[in-house]
Every structure is written in C-alpha cells, then in structure tokens.
Amino acid sequence: MSGRRAVAVDVQASAIRLEPQDNEGRSSLYYNFNDGGLESMVQGYRSALLKHEDYNALCQCETLQDVKMYLQTNTSYGDPPFLQDVATLDATVIKEKAHDMLVKEFNELREWSDPPLSTFLDFITYDYMITNVLKLIQGARNNRDTLDLITRMHPLGKFEGMGAIMADCSTIDAIYDTMTILELPIMKFFQQESDRVEFESDQSSMEYVHAVFKKQYLEAFYNLCQDIGGTTWETMKEILEFEADRTVIGLTRNCFGNKDIKPGLDRSRLFPNFGTLVDWHGRIADCDDDESLRAILGDEKGGLHHWRNLVTGGGGGLGESSSSASAMENKFTDMSIELNRCSMSRSFHYGVFYSWLKLREQELSNLFWICACIEMKTRDRIREFSEIFPSN
C-alpha cells in the first residue's frame, strides 16, 4: 500500500496574494488563498507518519532487509523507494536516506512559499544553522578535519560560504569574522551588546556560546510569531514557551559545577526572557544540584503543576534514584510530541509546518533506534522509543 502520502498539487499560483487587514485578522480566506495549498501538503505528510501498527511491524523485523521491504511496501517511504539504490544496509544509511527525503520535502515548501510564511520557515532553519556553526567552532578548537566537519553538518542549516569558513578559518575569532562578512542571518543573535560572546579566548565555554545563540534565537522567533498573530501565535506561543523552559532546565543542569557559568546572575542572563518559568528564573539560576532544582519545580504551591511530572512522575525523572539525563530527555520528548500533535490538529496557522518537521524528525529517530537494535541484536531494548501516535 505505497503512496499513503498526499499527492502534491500546483501551489505556484501564490504569485497573486491577498493581504491581511491586520496581524490579528489573518482570515481563513486570506490564509487559504495564500498558504492553504502548502498546509494541505503538510497535513498529507502528517497522515503519512508511521502509526502504531507500523512500529509493531518494524519491531518484529528480523533483518534490516525486512525493514526495507516493509517501509517500501507499506509506507510512504516506498513512493519513491528511498533505498532502492543502496547496496549495503545499515542503520545509519537508512536514517540518512530517510532524512534526505525530509530535507527535500521541507526545501520544496520553502521554495513555494512567500512572506510571511517563507520568513517563518527560514526561522526554523536558523536553529539548524546555529547547530552547524557550533560544530564549526568546536571543530576549530579541536583542530578537526574539514571533511569530518562537512559530514556532520545538518543540511537544513547549510549556507553559502560554509566551505570557506571550514577551509580558511583556524580559530574561533576567524570564524566569527568570516560569518560577519558573509552577513549570515544568525549573526544578529550575537549582536546584542549585553549578551555578545567574546571570542578573543578560545577557552570560552561552549555551553555559554550555545546558550547565547539559543536565547537570542528563541526570543526572536517568539517575537516573529507574535507579529504574525492569530492562530499561529496562539499555537507557537505554547510550543516556544515549552522550548524556553526546556532550555532553562537543561542549561541549569548542564552548568552544575561549570566554573565558566556560575549560579546566579551569570546563569540567569542566559535564560530566554519568556516562558512559564520566567518568574522563577532567579531562584532556578541559584540552583547548583538536582535536589534544589527539584524543590522549585516540584513545589505544589509554586504554580508549576505542569512541570511536577518531570520531577515526580514515574519512569525516571529529575532527582529520582533512577534519574539520568536520558530519562529526563525522554520526558521532554513526550511533552514535545504532545504539543506538536495538538498543533497539527488545528488549521489555518503556520505552526503546522514547524510541528510536522519536529514530528518527522522524531520518526527518523525512532526508525534509527529500531534499525540499530536489529543491527546490534539488542532486541530487548527495541521498543525504547517515543511513538508519535501511541495506541490507546
């Protein structure tokens, strides 16, 4: 039953565009005329995501050849067959080929879109561009091979001049100067005087560099969605506030014992200035162990009921005897999946594009996990992944 994915229609008619009367009044007529065709495509992609029965079948496969056969026969991965030219199968190759399909689909959406949707889609790619730049900085610090760096670059975050940066820049200062000359869009996330990272020393904490990028990026994306307004703002506000809170908790835990980012002011200035935890940033910034962080997030009188499951729920969590970074990340993943599923259940907003991409990336992660377990013969752990549409 190949071809579950909806057939793309000609959406190039967007050369003629209706204009909204105001940011708050992006009517369904306006949205449908300008962006409805692309949203229909994405909703078709969403309906093609792997379901519970697909995961059951994949987990029962004995070999990667069986996985290939099932995907190409029973899912959208068979239209066109994404592994037909692969001679030797392994988990990494399967994930890379599936990822190539995702990148192609997303780039097509970008090519066919017009502002403000195209601006929104560009902002999604900035997160991947930041990831690539951080890899360049880390590579420069560790004298990594250029070819090795290229293979680790996320395709949605690639940009013109990347080759020149990797070939000609041997220090972090040089990378920064080159990116400034290239006028990369993410450089604006470094141009806030109060948060500008100083690259004079190659000993700058990578956690600090990442935190500065992430803070400025999330705040700019948040402001963009607010400017777009309507259902896009309503949906993305909740998603981005979750991501901001996730960043605060993750940064706090990663900085335990980090002398470059001390508790208090040094840490709080790196927190995004929005989110459900914003009123507790000062207290969270002073935490220097899991116990103190858990006391804040788990306080029944603190109004943070939505975070209590992270620190007190079953299955491992912050501060529990079975806690670990992976256990907490699994809970974050489940929360993110739920938010993005809810986003895609609504219509006439740009959040569906963001949420589809995130859900699809989760699917690729699940697929890689299953294939890796089959490949390494660790079938006892094959179901340790987060389904997008779990059974009731």
Textual characterization of the structure:
The chain has 392 residues and is mainly α. Helix content is 59%, strand content 0%. It contains 16 helices and no strands. Helix 1 (28-47) runs parallel beside helix 16 and helix 4 crosses helix 5 (117-142). The longest helix is centred in the first third of the chain and has 26 residues, at 117-142. It is globular, with a radius of gyration of 22 Å.
Instruction: Give the structural class.
Output: mainly alpha
What kind of sheet is the major sheet? none
Determine the number of helices (DSSP H or I, runs of at least 4 residues).
16
Quote the distance from N terminus to C terminus: 24 Å
Element order, helices and strands? HHHHHHHHHHHHHHHH
Mean pLDDT: 82
Summary tags:
392 residues; mainly alpha; globular; disordered N terminus
Write the layout of secondary structure elements.
Blueprint: H1 28-47, H2 52-59, H3 64-74, H4 91-112, H5 117-142, H6 146-151, H7 162-168, H8 172-182, H9 206-228, H10 230-254, H11 265-268, H12 281-285, H13 290-297, H14 305-312, H15 325-344, H16 351-376
Helix pairs in contact: 1-16, 4-5, 4-16, 5-9, 9-10, 10-15, 15-16
